[in-house]
Amino acid sequence: MKLRVLYLNENSSFPYDNRARREMGTLRDAGAEVLVICPAFEGGPGWEGCKRAGLRGTSVEHFDGHEIWYYPFPEYGHSLQGHLGEYVVSLAWLQRLAWRAFRQRGFDAIYAVNPPDLLWPIAAQFQALGKKFVFDHYDLNPELFQDRFGDNPAAMRALPLVKAMERATITLADRVISTNASYRRIAIERCGKDPSKVIIVRNGPDPKNFYPDTPDPIARSKGKLVVGYLGNMNPQDGIDEIIEMARILRFERGRADIGFVLVGQGDSYKDVIALRDRLGLTEQIHMPGRLPMEGVRACLSAADICVQPDPPGGLNNLSTMNKVMEYMAMGKPVIAHQLKETMVSGGDVAVYTRTPDAAGLVERVLELADDPARRQALGEAGLRRCDEVLAWRHQAPCLLRVFEELFPGFAPEHRDARPILE
């Protein structure tokens, strides 16, 4: 009988989540049937269907060989109270749709990702009925909470509850998937998980999706040399550093020849656009928002240098960022701050700043901007590192090992798979 997996995500839209697409695509190709439940964001996939559904709110679409059940994302703002309101409504939707999936289709395993660490009560109901729970540990929620609300004493009173929810999620899961060795150590040492049930499945670009393409003409028009960014735009992501870097380059260093393309969206998106416009950088910085994969390739293909501005912090230092590896897969030289897990991914191929701020980024951008031969050499080295170490084909066997352990006979050839980087 075919393995049936129910994929739950409260935080992002499946078509824009490259890790989710790679993982669920791997299970699909191995013979599993995947049903996805995730939010529809305004203007994005599933949104029009949710609007047409009216009070029922849900939309059913097909993408990448999966059926996706969308519910309308509850937008209540980005304060702590706004997030709490969002979670209450989202969890009600996820609960309702998970039971609908159980009654109509059935499933053998729930595959849930964070943030938030609040999906375990849903998974627990189905564990009681004999279903397996696989938790994919996207973010360290206690560190994320501290980075976002650390200057709010009232909010920080909730930190013990955030830690308890992390521990409950990891304790309950039949298997925990960690994106790197730092996350695995936290699951074992902080949350007390049996090491044999925590498996590293690193992020890794799929060369079928990330490859040089025809450059986007708008992005290419922004400068003789273009700096690119791809990723979320939340307070912890350092997007304001890119804007400050652009200001320094344009008005203090006189580099009107350098433009920018920033692809993505998030809690800070509108604020960053307002900052860009207030500083007089509208013509230098193209911000198209979230894009389908072909748009992502076009914008990154227009870039000469790509940056990862994530500042040091409890979350960023220990997290594996997709973007640095995706830049490499596109053959682009990469500049990043000296974060522990970023340096594991980038190795000696990425260029790291001396100071973790906009001035540090400016220094490295200017070095590469005026050295096309070095840019080419770094881009070629990044491509080789992706091919030999980072690409998804090196990570996929570890994901299949997880399901072989839970469902013997599903992927026996991957029973002993181990990550290349630990």
Topology:
Blueprint lengths: L3 E5 L9 H12 L3 E8 L6 H7 L5 E5 L2 E7 L7 H25 L4 E5 L6 H8 L4 E6 L3 H9 L3 H4 L2 H14 L2 E4 L2 H9 L8 E3 L16 H4 L4 E6 L8 H14 L5 E6 L5 H10 L6 E5 L3 H10 L2 E4 L13 H8 L4 E3 L3 H7 L4 E2 L5 H12 L2 H19 L1 H15 L16
Parallel strand pairs: 1-2, 1-5, 2-4, 5-6, 6-7, 7-8, 9-10, 9-12, 10-11, 12-13, 13-14
Antiparallel strand pairs: 3-4
What does it look like?
The chain is an alpha/beta fold and 422 residues long. The chain folds into two domains: 224 residues, Glycogen Phosphorylase B (Rossmann fold), CATH 3.40.50.2000; 174 residues, Glycogen Phosphorylase B (Rossmann fold). The protein is 44% helix and 16% strand. The strands form two sheets. It has an eight-stranded mixed sheet, sandwiched between helices. It has a six-stranded parallel sheet with strand order 11-10-9-12-13-14, sandwiched between helices. The longest helix has 25 residues. It is globular. The protein starts with a strand and ends in a 16-residue tail after the last helix. 50% of the residues are buried.
